[in-house]
Amino acid sequence: MISHLRGTIIEITEKYIVLDVQGIGYKVFCSTDTLAGLREGIEASLSTYLAVREDALDLYGFISSEEKGFFEMLISVSGIGPKGALGILGQTSVETLKQAIGTGDTSYLTKVSGIGRKTAEKVVLELRDKLRAHVTIKEGPGSLRSESDVVEALKSLGYSPNEARDTLKEIPDNIVGTNARIKEALKILGGK
């Protein structure tokens, strides 16, 4: 099993990087957060997960071990494969996803993470007990209710769910209150 790679990034695409490790190029699929922190020509060190299938050996790379651990928890849920888990991780922070699952908030998972209702229910059912001991319910700017309200408000203004989720990640944590967070999101969207 390949669990770690260090090398020079020779190519970056929307879904993966090619990492040159002593003359061998490894194609490593990464989350959008991981990809955002990487640049071509720099040396990178990634924790990896090797997915073995009948017809392929796919590598998935993560900058943080927390993200890799959560990825492995997600793929333990029946019906969620590595690419689906990577898609879920790309929508919001690991901490927020853990809180949504730990509190059983399936509506948040469907609105912000972009997965269907049945899949969200399955994720909560299978992972809630594992996460409940590690999750503290938080209120305020990063609370699930506030984030869900911001996404819904942006969608009602005509923005796509993906635009709303991407913008939500850019709002600083020091902006408090749903209305203030919506205003900040609109400023961010207006600047693009």
Describe this entry's structure for a reader.
This protein is of the alpha+beta class and 192 residues long. The chain folds into 3 domains: 4-62, OB fold (Dihydrolipoamide Acetyltransferase, E2P) (Beta Barrel), CATH 2.40.50.140; 65-132, DNA polymerase, domain 1, CATH 1.10.150; 144-190, Orthogonal Bundle (Helicase, Ruva Protein, domain 3), CATH 1.10.8. It is built from 9 helices and 5 strands; from the N terminus they run βββαββαααααααα. Strands 1-2-3-5-4 form a 5-stranded mixed β-barrel. α4 crosses α6 (117-132), α5 (106-113) crosses α7 and α8 crosses α9. It starts with a strand and ends with a helix.
Q: How many helical elements?
A: 9
What distance separates the N and C termini?
42 Å
Query: CATH-wise, what's the superfamily of the largest domain?
Result: 5' to 3' exonuclease, C-terminal subdomain
CATH architecture term of the largest domain? Orthogonal Bundle
Oligomer: single chain
Number of β-strand runs: 5
Rg (CA only): 18 Å
Name the beta content range. 15-25%
Please name the CATH topology of the largest domain: DNA polymerase, domain 1
Order of helices and strands: EEEHEEHHHHHHHH
Strand order of the largest sheet: 1-2-3-5-4
Helix content class: 40-55%
Instruction: Specify the overall morphology.
Output: globular
Tally of individual domains = 3
Main sheet makeup: 5 strands, mixed, barrel
Give unreliable regions as ranges: none
